[in-house]
Amino acid sequence: MSRSFDDLEPCQALAEMARDFHGRGWMAGTAGNLSARDRADPNSFWITASGQAKGRLDSGDFLRMAVAGDQVLELGRPGIKPSAETSIHRAIYRLFPAVRACLHVHTVDASLAASRNGAHATDLPLPPLEMIKGLGIWEENPRVTLPLFTNWLDVPAIAAEIEARFRAAPPPVPALMIHHHGVTVWGESLQEAYNRVEIVEFLMSYLARRV
Ligand SMILES: [Zn+2]
After folding, report:
1. What's the Cα-to-Cα distance from 156 to each of 13, 56, 160, 188, rounded to whole Å?
2. CA of 27 to the centre of ligand 1 (A)
3. How confident is the model at residue 88 (pLDDT cuts 50, 70, 90)?
4. Is there a contact between 46 and 9 (Cβ–Cβ < 8 Å)?
5. Separation of CA 104 and ligand 1 centre (Å)
6. 5-209: CATH superfamily
């Protein structure tokens, strides 16, 4: 076992994370998608193929996509197609050049926590727990919010809203939530992004269980 996900090849690391998240019920069936920037060409990123069981991925179940456009640059194996939510990952890599990994999971707790504020809320206040330091918030009694987005059927429309909103005002935390859907979290290393998924889900679980 490596000490950090960054010690592994990116697709191997992402496949291992997918098994981990699947085991916790965060990537049920084929749900969710994970990506990492290519190490040799940071203008491209590897993302999970569409329709693959997330508990059973191997490093061939990924495609390399351009950050600038929607071209497929490389296939892990013949016949696979990129995740239907690739445009959201592309938006995050375009917005944040230092980001190396972007992870998206579908969880019950995040969906419950976000819906508590109403289906049209645009921000979810996060609880001022110690764990929030893991998202880079070092304040006494922090008052930060998680940006919320509408779950349009047309995924590129969600990606366009994310890009426009974050270009106008950077998000307070390295994460966002799509209503009735799940969180997307990013980091400047694979390990950082992985840790942040755990932290965001911890905060969502707290909010979902709070009466
Ligand atoms: Zn999704």
Report:
1. 27, 27, 6, 24
2. 9
3. very high
4. no
5. 6
6. Class II aldolase/adducin N-terminal domain (3.40.225.10)
Give the Cα-Cα-Cα angle 104, 204, 20 (nearest 5 degrees). 45
> What spacing in Å lies between the alpha carbon of 140 and ligand 1's midpoint?
33
Distance 198 CA to ligand 1 centre (A): 17
Q: Please answer whether residues 112 and 175 qualify as being in contact, where contact means their C-beta atoms are separated by less than 8 angstroms.
A: no
> Does the reported pTM lie above 0.70?
yes
Residue 177 C-alpha to ligand 1 middle, in angstroms? Answer: 10
Cβ contact 21:105 at 8 Å: yes
Taking only the tens place, the pLDDT of each residue in 140-186 is 888 999 999 999 999 999 999 999 999 999 999 999 999 999 999 99
Q: Which residue has the tokens 């992870």?
A: 103
Question: What is the 75 CA–ligand 1 centroid distance (Å)?
Answer: 21
Q: Tell me, in angstroms, the distance from the centre of ligand 1 to residue 101's CA.
A: 16
Which run of H or E residues covers position 190?
helix 190-209
